[in-house]
Each structure stands twice: as structure tokens, then as C-alpha cells.
Amino acid sequence: MTAFNDSATAILESPEAAEMAEPAGPPAKIDEVRESMGPMEMFSDVASLFHVLSDASRLRLITALAKTPLCVGELSEIVGLGQSATSHALRVLRDCRVVRAEREGQQVRYELSNGAIRSLLSAGWIHALDQKPPQALREKPTFTGEIDLKSGKGKDKKKGKKKKKKG
Which fold has domain 44-133? Predict the structure, then answer.
């Protein structure tokens, strides 16, 4: 162990280590940049959000919810996950305030918590893939009824009837 300690001490006392300990720029500039960054504690919250967004299954759920509010069963079928995995992923997203839940009778409908999530994913899509994001991320949600997954047609929430096309 003493050989390791002697080696570590020699490295720390080397001229290169002394040079690295000196500030890289004028102290006023360093202080200005540090202050402009805000409190360092906030970075862990933002890092947690990006960690949650780093899962492809959760990104598929968010993208589906960017189109319209959906319940667990609908989301499960749309993204190809089991209902248990979908519920777990939604809980993680809800805990990080990415989605919010609203009870409608016996079902719980999920939706994006705000437009910032859509914008963040769109920017990430453009950055990572250098192409337009999926349509669901480019448009604001307009449909708030139920989706019949077999026919793909919507039902009006209030009347329980299928929506009629105008024209």
C-alpha cells in the first residue's frame, strides 16, 4: 500500500498537477459563468428527467400521448408493451411530472403534463436523427375522445357515439 501512496503523492506533487490546479481563466469570468448557471443542486433534477427520457419504451409512450390522452390498455396496445410494463413506465413518467393522470370512471387517462415535453422530444429527435420528428410530436393534440383500436375511429366522449366526418 505504501508504494501506491508514494506514487499517488508523486503524481499530485508533479508540475503538471500544479498547473491543473491553477484557474483556467480570470477569476471574474469563472465567477460570472458559475453564477449564470444557477444553483448546482438543480442539475440533478434535470439529469433525472433526461434519465427518464433515455428509455425507448417511455419515449414511445410519450410520443403516443403527444397525439391524444390515452388509458393504459390503449397505450399498451399502441406501443406493444404489456399492461404491467406500461403501468410501471407511466408511474415513472408521472413521478418525474412528464405525464399526468386523470380518472374517468374506472379508467385513468394519461396525457402529457405540458407542451415543453413535446418541444423537448422534438428537439431531441431533430438533433439525434437530423430529420423531422414524428407527426404526433409536431402537432398539438386535438382529439380527446376514445379510440376504438380495432377500427382506428374515434368516439365522442360526451355522447359515446362515433364522430361523424364533416363534408
Answer: Arc Repressor Mutant, subunit A (1.10.10)
Q: Which is more confidently placed, 114 or 150?
A: 114
Q: Three cell numbers at 74?
A: 390503449
All three cell numbers of 19 = 498547473
CA of 158: how far to CAs of 90, 106, 145, 161, 163, in Å? 26, 16, 8, 8, 11
Upper half-sphere CA count for residue 122 (Cβ side, 13 Å): 14
**Digit-coded pLDDT (tens) for 83-133:** 999 999 999 999 999 999 999 899 999 999 999 999 999 999 999 999 999
List, in order, residues 6 or more apart from 61 with CB less than 8 Å away.
75, 79, 81, 86, 89, 90, 93, 99
Q: How far apart are CA 115 and CA 119, in angstroms?
A: 6
Q: What is the mean pLDDT of the chain?
A: 82
Question: Quick one: pLDDT at residue 16?
Answer: 63
Q: Where are the domains of the chain?
A: 44-133
**Cβ-Cβ contacts under 8 Å for 10 (sequence gap 6 or more):** none
